[in-house]
Specification:
The protein contains three helices and four strands; from the N terminus they run βαβββαα. It is α+β, with helices and mostly antiparallel strands. A four-stranded antiparallel β-sheet has the order 1-4-3-2. A hairpin with a 2-residue loop joins strand 3 and strand 4. Helix 2 crosses helix 3.
C-alpha cells in the first residue's frame, strides 16, 4: 500500500553559531550528548471531519546537534495520506510503510533542514548516518500497537 499524498510541518527550526572564545569554552548542556541525537514518533489515525476518514500515518523526527561551533534543533513531522484506504491502517501495514518509505522520506526533510541551518550560519552541511539505530525503528511497532 502506498501513500497518495504527504504534508510537512516544522515544529522547531533553530541554529546557534558560536565564534572565537565561545567555541573553545563551549561545553554541552548538562546531561546532553554531543554530536547528533535523533528521536522518532509514529502515529496512525484518520482524517478529521470525515465519518469514515482516510487513513493517515505521521512520522515525527526530532534532531539535536550539539558541537562547539554550533547547536541545531530541528523537529518536523510528515503526515502521509492513504486515499485508497478508509479507516486506520493495520499495525503491520503502518509499521512496514514507516520503516521503509515513510522514514526515508521524512529523513530527507531533516537532512535538508540540517544542511540549510548550518549553511545559514556559514558552516558546511553536517552528515548523519543513513541507517538509524535499530531501537529507534523498533519503537515504531510499540507506538502503533493498540494499548493493552
Amino acid at each position: 500500500m502506498g501513500a497518495t499524498g504527504a504534508s510537512l510541518r516544522w515544529y522547531q527550526r533553530s541554529v546557534e553559531r558560536r565564534f572565537d572564545e565561545d567555541v573553545s569554552m563551549w561545553e554541552p548542556p548538562s546531561g546532553e550528548e554531543t554530536g547528533i541525537v535523533i528521536g522518532a514518533m509514529v502515529h496512525s489515525g484518520t482524517s478529521e471531519g470525515v465519518i469514515d476518514g482516510t487513513a493517515l500515518l505521521s512520522i515525527r523526527l526530532h534532531l539535536v546537534l550539539q558541537e562547539p561551533e554550533c547547536s541545531v534543533d530541528l523537529d518536523c513531522a510528515v503526515t502521509f495520506e492513504f486515499g485508497e484506504c478508509i479507516g486506520e491502517l493495520a499495525v503491520a501495514e503502518a509499521v512496514e510503510f514507516a520503516r521503509t518509505e515513510g522514514l526515508q522520506y521524512t529523513l530527507g526533510y531533516l537532512r535538508g533542514g540540517l544542511a540549510d541551518a548550518r549553511r545559514s550560519v556559514g558552516l558546511n552541511a553536517a552528515m548523519f548516518p543513513s541507517v538509524l539505530p535499530a531501537e529507534l525503528v523498533e519503537g515504531f511497532e510499540r507506538s502503533l500497537s493498540p494499548k493493552a
